[in-house]
Amino acid sequence: METTPLQTRLSSQIQELELEPFVLQLEVDGLCVVPPEKTGIEPETIRAIGEQLLLEAEEIVGCGFSLNKGPEAPLTMSADENVLARFSGDHGEPTQFLVQQLCARNRLFRNLAINPVAVALIRHLIGQNATRFSSHNAFIKWQGEFGYGRNLGLHCDQMAVPRPWGRNALTANTNWCITDYSRDGGAMAYVPGSHRRMEPPRFPEAVELAVPVEAPAGSLIVFHGATWHGAFPRLTEGMRLSIANYFRHYMVLPQDDIKNLFPQELADDCDDPEMFKFLAGFADEFPYSHQTERVPRLIS
Ligand SMILES: O=C(O)CCC(=O)C(=O)O
Ligand SMILES: [Fe+2]
Q: Taking Cα atoms as reference points, which of 246, 252, 284, 281 lies closest to residue 267?
């Protein structure tokens, strides 16, 4: 009897980059950690990204930041802006902020956004042709007991999309650890397998089941949009830096209107301009910003 080769849903990129173990972990746990050796990003690049983030933070806030010490001047933020803490009714001053629109700021950030390992794993979750950028933000975090409050800010990123959710991810995220991730150092928290529940976190169960994602600087955390996650407060001195390159299915609203507002000429200044343009959705029909459909002409 003639047999046909086994068909899988795995893309050629997953196979060529030998990412099958990470795909398996994504399927089972809804999150995987890719070690620095596997992403192709050198330790010097991660260090350069960290230094650049501290400069961006300084430009926005107006005070210096040091990796080992944190902000070099006392800072204050409104407790009302601690959005994730608000879910649990907690009220506390955040000790972190976001540097947004990273890809318009520096080539280093654009290269990270199109890292082939990250993109292959995200396209596995969302869809090979349907994957687009949603946003590129850095989390700049320092010492503070409160963090996201009692519930660790546990949420799922695709929470705004109406249910029922299917198995396919509607959004999916990558968090690059720019500094080491440890529980006391304010690592991400997540609930293994929670993406298979296909619903937002239930409390207090979610907090009881949450585990820290502990990983060295340079690691890449990839997770499904339905995975329950948040973060532990940073109890130790110094800073936790991370970059969240967040992706969406092309029918889901982006966080950042990259298609219409990103300076397109910058896309040519990265390691793979074609991939950047594809993920930015520059050639997509929607959302349009001017009349795009044909109109009848007067017969003269
Ligand atoms: O590490 C954190 O603070 C959580 C990150 C997060 O929620 C995200 O990137 O979607
Ligand atoms: Fe999130």
A: 281
Mutate-to-test residue for ligand 1 from 33, 139, 156, highest number of ligand atoms within 8 A of CB = 139
Q: Predicted confidence band at 92 (pLDDT cuts at 50, 70, 90)?
A: confident
Query: Taking 80 as the threshold, does the pLDDT of residue 8 lie above it?
Result: no
How far is the centre of ligand 2, averaged over its atoms, from the C-alpha of 225 (Å)? 8
Name the closest-CA residue to atom 3, ligand 1: 231
In sequence order, what are the residues at sequence separation of 6 or more whose Cβ sits closer than 8 angstroms to the Cβ of residue 14? 20, 23, 120, 121, 124
Amino acid at 122: I
In 3-state terms, what secondary structure has residue 251?
A: coil
Enumerate residues with CB within 5 Å of ligand 2 (an ion): 157
- Which residue ranges form the domains of the chain, and what is each CATH number? 19-280 (2.60.120.620)
Which residue's CA is minimally distant from atom 5 of ligand 1? 230
* Site residues for ligand 1, CB cut-off 6 Å: 139, 157, 173, 175, 188, 229, 231, 242, 244
- Quote the CA–CA distance of 72 and 65 in Å, as a whole number: 6
pLDDT value, residue 255: 98
The label of the residue with tokens 């950030």 reads: 109
**Is residue 5 pLDDT above 80, yes or no?**
no
Q: How many whole angstroms from 75 Cα to the centroid of ligand 2?
A: 24
Report the nearest-CA residue for atom 8 of ligand 1.
244
pLDDT exceeds 90 at position 83 = no
- Residue of 7 and 194 predicted with greater confidence: 194
Ligand 1: nearest atom to the Cα of 157: 10
Question: pLDDT tens digits for 220-252?
Answer: 999 999 999 999 999 999 999 999 999 999 999
Counting from 1 in the atom list of ligand 1, the atom nearest the Cα of 96 is 3
**6 band by pLDDT with thresholds 50, 70 and 90:** low
β-strand partners of 139: 98, 242
